[in-house]
Amino acid sequence: MIDTILFDLDGTLLKMNEKQFIQSYFSRIQALFETLELDVPLVMKGFMQGVTAMISNDGHKTNEEVYWDTFVSVTNIQKEFLEPHLQTFYETTFNEVIEATDTYDDLQNMLDHLIDKGYTLLLTTNPMFPKIATMSRIRWAKLKAESFKEITTFENYHYCKPNPKYYLEVLEKMGIQPSQCLMVGNDAQEDLVVQKLGMTTYLVTDHLIDRENNSYKTDYESTMVEFIEFAINQLPDLKP
What's the pTM? Predict the structure, then answer.
């Protein structure tokens, strides 16, 4: 019986123009590096190689540790120097990137309904951002972080999507089985990979990402507005 719902964030709960998001984010973080008088091409090389290292993380370290190990090896810029500046960036300038996003009506109401029905909600956003950046994007979506029993960030996870081991790590931490879970996401490869584990899937199509030309299979598929109606009116009440 399904009693746990895993939600992706970017492009699922948070409307997002991915291309505009990347441009807005990168332009601002490059401006930070310029202000710090760093070698911007070198720093961006370290940044991108750090991202690649997280995607291929084999689980021996957290994504945060793998990122910084790679970044430092490429740039020779120490974490102790740059991290406080990044903390300030994510507290302030990063919030301007909200320009590339928008919100859905009734999302928090839907989450409240699901919790009232007895479901456990998990926010399984790809853990490549620090917690502070993920909490900001939750606020941009006009959602309450406390609605989720788990929020995955690069500080506390050892794998990334689409590696199934990322989802297995979530399941192990929560003490649940794949058969208990419904995965709701917009990425046909990163989110539907959970089918290999035996999870039920719901693909949200408003900001669909599909790199394989409609070769995917999913149990359910609709717009977010239709998913909200499904969640409120069709998912069974688990409470006696």
Answer: 0.96
